[in-house]
Amino acid sequence: MTRILGAWARLPNEIRKPIRDYAAIFLGLVLAGDAIEEKDARGNAIVDDTVVLLFNAHHESIPFVLPASDERTSWVLMLDTCDPTPRRSSAVFKGGEPYTIEARSMAILCRESVHGA
Q1: In whole angstroms, what is the distance from residue 18 CA to residue 112 CA?
Q2: Helix, strand or coil, per DSSP, at residue 24
Q3: Is the CB of residue 81 less than 8 Å from the CB of residue 109?
Q4: What burial class does residue 54 get, using C-beta atoms within 10 Å of its C-beta: 0-12 exposed, 13-18 middle, 19+ buried?
Q5: Are 60 and 102 a contacting pair, CB within 8 Å?
Q6: pLDDT per residue over 73-100, tens digit each?
Q7: Which residues pair with 81 in a beta bridge?
Q8: What is the pLDDT of residues 3-54, one digit of tens each?
Q9: Distance CA 109, CA 92 (A)
Q10: Are 58 and 64 in contact (CB under 8 A)?
Q11: How far apart are CA 14 and CA 88, in angstroms?
Q12: CA separation for the pair 1, 61 (Å, rounded)
């Protein structure tokens, strides 16, 4: 089972409200493929992609700050449901920078592999 490491949202000061006001309108999850504790049949560690799932049920867009484990962390957009022609994108976003998810949509981003890391 992939461990969910966190849920977060950083909002600009002008739209910050008590968290109870946002409890059901947006959610961000990290599914860390490198944090799987189980082993395969040969006893080797199971490692998979790390993905970010963003959900926005609000009627306005919400900026999420993408996680960054270091300065090289980047995320590839796999799906954004506000796109009228869903397809895998070549758009890459740096960790630590905001990704704005549009109203009433969801997005999936996958951590980009860094060769030699």
Answers
A1: 33
A2: coil
A3: no
A4: buried
A5: no
A6: 999 999 899 887 766 667 899 998 989 9
A7: none
A8: 334 444 455 555 555 555 555 688 888 988 888 888 999 999 888 899 999 9
A9: 9
A10: no
A11: 33
A12: 31
